[in-house]
Amino acid sequence: MFLVALLLEDIGFILLARGMREASSPLVQEGRPRIWRILTNPRVGAGVFLQAIYYVLLLALIQRVPVSLVVPMTGFGYVLTAFLARIFLKEPVSVRRWAGILLITIGVALISSAGD
Known about the structure:
Elements: H1 2-23, E1 28-29, E2 32-33, H2 34-39, H3 42-64, H4 67-73, H5 76-88, H6 95-113
Antiparallel strand pairs: 1-2
Helix pairs in contact: 1-3, 1-5, 5-6
């Protein structure tokens, strides 16, 4: 369930980024204000929907698993977000950023493997 939640969250971020880039160019375009274009953009709506599902799944997880374990594990989302942004948004991901993501991943691994 956790991996599904992270995937939904990150796909939601990608959709939100694409939708916001599409909708937020000029302040007024074709007589429609920017805020209206954002609110009616299907990618923005789908991104918000997937983010909402992610939070519902996160709530279900913290009912069953200690929050001190669940929340740090969401750090794995940084790895997935960087991959998806690189692939679908063609965003550059520098070596320095990958190094930071690696450090976060190591920290998450340490937290999740630590015994009580």
